[in-house]
Amino acid sequence: EVQLVESGGGLVQAGGSLRLSCTYSGFTFNDYAIGWFRQAPGKEREGISCISSSDGTTYYADSVKGRFTISSDNAKNTVYLQMDYLKPEDTAVYYCGVDVGVMWVPPAVGLYDYWGQGTQVTVSS
């Protein structure tokens, strides 16, 4: 059974940092991408970053480029999202998901096959 579990969310002041973790299990795929998405109240879920399992290629949406960094630790079956210089508009529920197969960019919700439960990130001004 495929499972993804996010952790690391919380409340932080603007300009601060958080590191989110996405720990996965049950994978039997040769190629896949892990993506980070977020959904603010009243808005659609948007893809902000993803990383390919095959070659480590990464992608960032313009809204987070230069502030967020995605990385993976294959030994721990974990993908991280380091979030620096956080802004109030980064407030959202953050989800990780897995896209089985070749990574497509930008990451699209409809392409992702499995999801975690989400973790809340709140940035105060």
Layout of SSEs?
Layout: E1 3-7, E2 10-13, E3 18-25, E4 32-39, E5 46-52, E6 58-60, E7 68-73, E8 78-83, E9 92-100, E10 114-115, E11 119-124
Parallel strand pairs: 2-11
Antiparallel strand pairs: 1-3, 3-8, 4-5, 4-9, 5-6, 7-8, 9-10, 9-11
Based on the model shown, name its key terms.
125 residues, 11 strands
Structural class: mainly beta
**Tally of helical segments:** 0
Any idea what the radius of gyration is?
13 Å
So what's the overall shape?
Answer: globular
The protein's oligomeric status is: single chain
The proportion of residues in beta strands is over 45%
- Tell me roughly what share of residues is in helical segments: under 10%
Strands, total number: 11
What number is the mean pLDDT?
96
Description:
It is a single chain. This protein is mostly beta strands and 125 residues long. Helices cover 0% and strands 51% of the residues. The protein has no helices and 11 strands. Strands 2, 4, 5, 6, 9, 10 and 11 form a 7-stranded mixed β-sheet that branches. Strands 1-3-8-7 form a 4-stranded antiparallel β-sheet, with no helix packed on it. The radius of gyration is 13 Å and the shape is globular. The mean pLDDT is 96.
Summarize the structure.
The protein is mainly beta. The protein has no helices and 11 strands.
